[in-house]
């Protein structure tokens, strides 16, 4: 937009947002991931070696923490969309997260906050209830803080690109690849540098470094405020959804109108929440259309939204309902993925991890193979696959996000299938060397046998998780995109909780005489971990069938968008178009 200066000349005022804001936004995300992954990757070792928890309890503690940390984004997204806006929510949440990280670091430094080291002639003393309470309080502060960061950072970053500008139409979906790539790099640093520091220098430094990095990221994020494109909060999206439900129920006895154009429209009411464009009427879930039928009792100028809603608001609810089945299909991939930081890590601890005679890979760093394969896949996908696929499909993004998710599901099935066969190989090696009854001994089999399962999980995530995130952001109503991003983290939460439930049930019902169990607490060599992996494989196959059915029936949201065009007069104009 041009403005005249005091001398009558023209100068261009820089539009806010764009690529220049990415370093400030990504800095916050990088440090949050350093903190979470740097601890999470090695948390099983911390809980078992420092707090002396049994393996099953430690594994469930890990997945419960991951689940809670992924559940709180619902609250953060609600506050951002309804009241505070994304910038303020990220800032306050980052400060809360900082407090949790400092507390967690102190719990690792101070000897009084953890049990004494194990002695050779004594049974290891587990952490007291008070010591566990301090640990969990620190983790809870971290979960609350991440709840404000996770859903808002991804949506806030995407907000910096104006979808109505034809020069930025491809920037948004490219952004999701960049976002995940940067996040993957920070995870890679966490599972290598930070895990090495934790294992070889100490947990105080291993947790203190990301805590200091988080402090610096808060400063950087606030410093970038003048550059950001900030969208104002437009009220609670959940309230609007409930209002449509109530209005439709109150008018359930009314006959449906013959012409959808007769349904209630109010541009003045919808403009603050339509942002990128108004949703068009769809023929699905017709019962909800009754919320937009104008009756004699309704005041169309100042409507009671608990009795009368616009077509746009009705379609917001329809969009959320249509997204539900596709969203739910992503949960079980997380359940399979969660095993990398529990039982796959425990496998690694029993295998030969030496790269040289003097250096061995920390067990918690094995997920480096996941992140390397994920980053490589993202780079190849963005630079090579998309241009090639675009020529064949004519789609800007190469393939749809639904196809991308489906590919990820298939690869994840192979990951857990391969993991089962690798576990058989590991146990055969233990038996051949007479180490079945020695759980603390290192089996002379290379840890690189775990490379396929870790790498396949990384490739699967590059396809499925990014496709899932794209789907939720693109198909959600424009005023609910923080909430849509929160749904991504909610699927991670649900996946972790299902993992906890599945591990608990398998541990309980697979128990046999003489202490035998698929998932033993002490000696993995006597378990049947391969059966557990194959059970996950079967569940994922069923989930893939479910996903294919949902994807075939899915209807993309129809939206009327405004595109900025340059008219012959050289001034900005508006062009209406439909994006499906």
UniProtKB/TrEMBL annotation:
Compartment(s) of residence: Membrane
A Pfam family recorded for this sequence: PTR2
Keywords: Membrane, Transmembrane, Transmembrane helix
GO cellular component terms given for this protein: membrane
UniProt GO MF annotations: transmembrane transporter activity
Domain of life per record: Eukaryota
Chain ranges passing through the membrane: 87-113, 178-197, 203-228, 320-339, 359-381, 401-422, 442-466, 487-511, 531-554
Topology versus the membrane: Multi-pass membrane protein
Stored PANTHER family: OLIGOPEPTIDE TRANSPORTER-RELATED
UniProt similarity note: Belongs to the major facilitator superfamily. Proton-dependent oligopeptide transporter (POT/PTR) (TC 2.A.17) family.
Protein name: Protein NRT1/ PTR FAMILY 3.1
Organism name: Ziziphus jujuba (Chinese jujube)
Gene this chain is encoded by: LOC107429423
